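Internal QA ticket QA-208
Title: Verify multi-chain structure generation after dependency bump
Assignee: T.L.

Test input:
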Amino acid sequence: MAEKADLLFTNALVLAMDEAMNQFEVGALAIKGDTILAAGPEAELRKKFDAKEIVDCGGKVLMPGLVNAHTHVPMTLLRGLADDLRLDVWLMGYIMPVEREFVNPEFVRLGTSIGCAEFIRSGVTTFADMYYFESSVAEATAAAGLRAVCGQTIMRFPSPDAQSFEDSLAATRQFIEQWLNHPLIVPAVSPHAPYSCTEEILRASAALAAEFDVPLHTHIAETAFEVENARRDWGMPVVPYVKKQNLFDAKVLAAHCVHVDAGEINTLKHHGAGIAHNPSSNLKLASGAAPVAEMLNAGLNVGIGTDGPASNNDLDMFEEVRLAAFLSKFHTNDPTSLPAQTALLMATRLGAQALHIGQRTGSLEAGKRADLILVDINQVHNSPHFRRDPNSVYAQLVYATKATDVSDVMVNGKWVMRHHELLTLDESEMLAHAADLAKEIDSFLIARESSVLSKLIAIGGTTQEESFEIQVKVKVEDPKPILGALTKPGIKIIYNRHYREYDAYFKFKPQQGILRYREDEFLNERGEVDHVRYRLTLVGDPHEREFPSDVMLSRSRFLAPANQSLRFYREYFQPSEEIHIVKDRRRWLVRFKDTEFYVNLDRMDEPALGFFLELKTRTWSRRDAEHKSTLVLELAKFLGVSTQETEAREYVRIVEENK
Amino acid sequence: MAEKADLLFTNALVLAMDEAMNQFEVGALAIKGDTILAAGPEAELRKKFDAKEIVDCGGKVLMPGLVNAHTHVPMTLLRGLADDLRLDVWLMGYIMPVEREFVNPEFVRLGTSIGCAEFIRSGVTTFADMYYFESSVAEATAAAGLRAVCGQTIMRFPSPDAQSFEDSLAATRQFIEQWLNHPLIVPAVSPHAPYSCTEEILRASAALAAEFDVPLHTHIAETAFEVENARRDWGMPVVPYVKKQNLFDAKVLAAHCVHVDAGEINTLKHHGAGIAHNPSSNLKLASGAAPVAEMLNAGLNVGIGTDGPASNNDLDMFEEVRLAAFLSKFHTNDPTSLPAQTALLMATRLGAQALHIGQRTGSLEAGKRADLILVDINQVHNSPHFRRDPNSVYAQLVYATKATDVSDVMVNGKWVMRHHELLTLDESEMLAHAADLAKEIDSFLIARESSVLSKLIAIGGTTQEESFEIQVKVKVEDPKPILGALTKPGIKIIYNRHYREYDAYFKFKPQQGILRYREDEFLNERGEVDHVRYRLTLVGDPHEREFPSDVMLSRSRFLAPANQSLRFYREYFQPSEEIHIVKDRRRWLVRFKDTEFYVNLDRMDEPALGFFLELKTRTWSRRDAEHKSTLVLELAKFLGVSTQETEAREYVRIVEENK
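Actual output:
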């Protein structure tokens, strides 16, 4: 007697994407509830199953839904905010300031819903996300009916959803407990990247993920710069470093892996890590080409991701799969590298395995969830078809099919799109909200960041420095006791410098930060000029929190080498006002109570305002900031300086208000 | 009083892509007949023009139609025929055999019409083509209502539309005369590439193009291999070589230019050449990355092309523009390289200028033809929009827009698509024809080329050799007079070799060519084995023309170094029959009457069939072949050999029929 089924898909070219890479040319698929019963030849399945409903696929391709192995989906709302920029400028100059101002649970829900609409339209049924307020990502995704591994971001900097990593960790635990065992959502722990975390954060994240047996989704070795820094700071590349922090105690999904060597590939394989390859992002940001062929040869599960839509700028996995194939051929100088079948496998079964949910989705096999799509391969851009070679259909899907050829999408046994119509989301309403928000963001950026920064960017490479800095400044009558205190036990001088600094400050109307052109004369021990450095720095008004005694947590600044003359910059930036300051600066890098501080002893010569002492140190978490705000006051005391009357203003403000 | 116009487009975001890069946010465009009268703010144009008809663009982007700067459009019919192969295998193993069999004017018309449908749907209004039977390309394009520069191919090999380059040249002249001054079609001369032409062909092509002042469209420096060969054979890179052949007497459109140096870029610029950059093709075939940023900096008009749809595998210019931007960023390791605005400019105004029709199309400016498209940038994958930066709209079009977002297309003042509906072409009819043809091609390849070649390809790099060879073979009773004749004046020995050859021939059922495994023992002057070479050669049945006296023009063969044992190949290929031959071969490369010939003097040992003399030489045109077929008989006579009884069979046939 025939077995009962809920649905029987017929008249399809079924691509199972299973181990045997089964294709059924007049194929069928039977499902019951959320589960696949069988894929096979139509004639066979018609005999075997008694289905409540028959779905005639009209000769389309029936295949597993695509798996987007790495994205930051709420960033649909920042799509096209800024492009064609260097990563640091893009991130520090545009994305992070906007995120700090605008990202909240509502933003995340709206951005995720828009992303889900785009996913469904382009045949993605599963994605791996990493963002802030990840519980809102999970809610919106579940409401849209898609499957996702949702990673709550943890890092050492304050973020839109946490003032410190301790807050993030606690929130992540709560998030996991809330979503564990959901039919669509797999919660995950997402320490952002080794360089944006600390050893402590990595260890705690891995322990948390291992405790609940959930995936750990992070960025690994995305840029050459990151690996250089790892070698310099940790004496080893990125993968051994994270292994040392026990990261592989968890089921790791490692995004990018652009700059990993053969040894690191072995380590990743040994620990069963999944990889997310992001060709568009790696090309657009000039990060490099990941060794995809080597990773596949090593037996790693390598999936394909779009990365966030603010950098890509879309979530089109068909484009991404094609690019993965193209980039591997180009990179290996071998057109047979990463053939279409392999590329498509990465976007389905291997991707699901990379996300550590391969038992649930990624191929059309009995027992897996019914996550599937119908693709029309009879459009004019995708005709004719050759069937001499069984690989032809994969080549068609990879090299000629467009995301818009996906007509129907089912996730977990439920339709989310039929005949190009979305069933779970209202696009026009979401897009209207997004349009309003885009206008607000435009206004915010125009007011706060626009022309000076843009102009600074336009003239050359800027780098961001001192994102978060604890600093205290005090007027000093006599510097001698400080010089004496620096030689006492309890403080260790790492190095010292002596400069003469000529600063020109540009002010603008309307107010948009202050641009400083600085000439640093480096003086040798005899007080002679050894060499000179010219730098341009854009400083915004500090608007981060202040601690007791005017200890400040300062904001980002942008730094560029100044290759042109002061006259050039004056003409180029056209400031509304210009202020000049000359000072003598002695600077020490010291270690005090296991913490590094910069000690600046400044003598203001033009205008002649006497001596100031500045103490500065970097920080990355609220607890650390609080700790250091105490330490910095102790250091001041150690140096014999009273912090009863501190100076909260920058030098340019002091000079202005002194006029 | 208001000026008369036929059409006024209103309510559009007009991107003029003119020198000033004008954008009109609520913009309008007026046209009369085939010509643009003005682009500007809507309010202004409404006052200025009295239009017969108003077209409300609904807030869409109104921009110039895209220019595809290099393609082989009829190859839509070979799309997906074979993928993920090395260029030589793909071309010699699949494309060329199928082209020789199937390409005729009807094929070209159908393939072009399908390509035009794809072009229109994806917003391309102008393309530069290069193929066979180019007059049929022109006919189908004009019928579809698109603009094209149509280049008739000329090369030194027999092609589907010509037995020799003399035939091609004559046909090209006729083609130009027929299409000169057509409103949509610009005829062009297309010597295929320097390596596939001769100096004579290049010179004659340039002269012909200059005579009619039409463009000359060719391939330049596509692969590193091509440049290596140029340096070896001509002692210089490709651009100086073609300059030496006076190629730049014509208005050149140079496709690819992947491997050109700074000097060559200067030469191209000096001579006003246009460049067609083909990122998909260069990536997919692993050809390399063209120095696009350098070429643009040098002031060259660099357009973007899809290359042929058999290698791409589509004609999607939106994808191509995005890839151009991505590839330049990756290649220069600089994410600010080739920003979106520049990439889109390459696909419009610069592209038109590269095709030498910049006065006619490529931007929305008064006096140019009305070639334009409407693009919906409000889809979910392309929202929201930021307008802080005027470059945002270009970034949106380049990084997030899909070809399917193009809704309306006008060429030369006439609609060819309205609201996604094609007005000049019937897709379903064309696709039905293409499907039938694809079945025929599948059957042809299965029968003629399939498994042995595929298997040969699967086990390693094959190269094609001796595509066209004049050869004559004669049974010889006594070799001594030949040895004597070789020392006479009138013949010059360039080198000589002595081998002992052990051949194993594999035959297959059904018949699919013969695979030869050959062990060549190179013998020194004392008859001792110096070294050994193993090679695998797949030979089809000769089916090209025969000249008088059994002089043969032989067909392609595929050659691979044999790294495995004879046993391995026997098990791998599973031949239905195996034939063994051992012979002693003396080979001379000689110059006779200014022509190089190979002289093989063979003694058949197993089976013992006595001596044979083989004379061989390469050819590339019908006239040349006829000339050499006479020369080879003269050489036989010179060597004292009668050609009354020649032997047309290959050795393996002689042995088989001798059993």
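Spot checks passed. The longest strand of chain B covers residues 491-507.
Status: verified.
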